[in-house]
Amino acid sequence: MGFETAAVIAIFFVSAIILGTSAYTVISASEERIDEANDLKHEMQVKRLQTDLNITNTTTDNSSDTYNLTVTVSNSGSVTLDSGKLDVLINGTLMSYSTSSPDTWTPDKIRNFTINNIPKGSASEHRVKVTTENGISDYATYPI
């Protein structure tokens, strides 16, 4: 075995160590991201399981071609919700709403959400859906 062979083996050995170190760094960073994503997924699932709301009442205020709707909703889960991040749909259409209460909506509290100037349409019964920011929702039907 000559000097050239020993030099080639040494170069291959050093290259293998450098390659292994680089690969470990990349794999380690990827594994950390996967762990963080799994932790976030777990937190989201726990919040979803602990979130619940119930539409307890709907009240309409009729005018000529439009009406106003007040939806009374109870936060019956154990998670504090942000009432500004809810979605309210009337017959499948996303509507803007107002509430006189602050955005923080603690468990076992009731909020009134008012939707103004809703077109009457031809149906005698309408459907309202309230959805939280993590996807939990409740439905109710109301007559016009």
List the helices and strands and how they pair.
Blueprint: H1 3-50, E1 53-62, E2 66-75, E3 81-82, E4 87-90, E5 93-95, E6 104-105, E7 110-119, E8 125-131, E9 137-143
Antiparallel strand pairs: 1-2, 2-7, 3-6, 4-5, 4-8, 8-9
Précis, in short:
It contains one helix and nine strands. The chain has one helix spanning 3-50, and strands at 53-62, 66-75, 81-82, 87-90, 93-95, 104-105, 110-119, 125-131, 137-143. The strands form three sheets. The protein has a four-stranded antiparallel β-sheet, with no helix packed on it.
Write up this protein.
The chain is an alpha+beta fold and 144 residues long. It has one helix and nine strands. It has one helix at 3-50, and strands at residues 53-62, 66-75, 81-82, 87-90, 93-95, 104-105, 110-119, 125-131, 137-143. The longest helix is centred in the N-terminal third of the chain and has 48 residues, at 3-50.
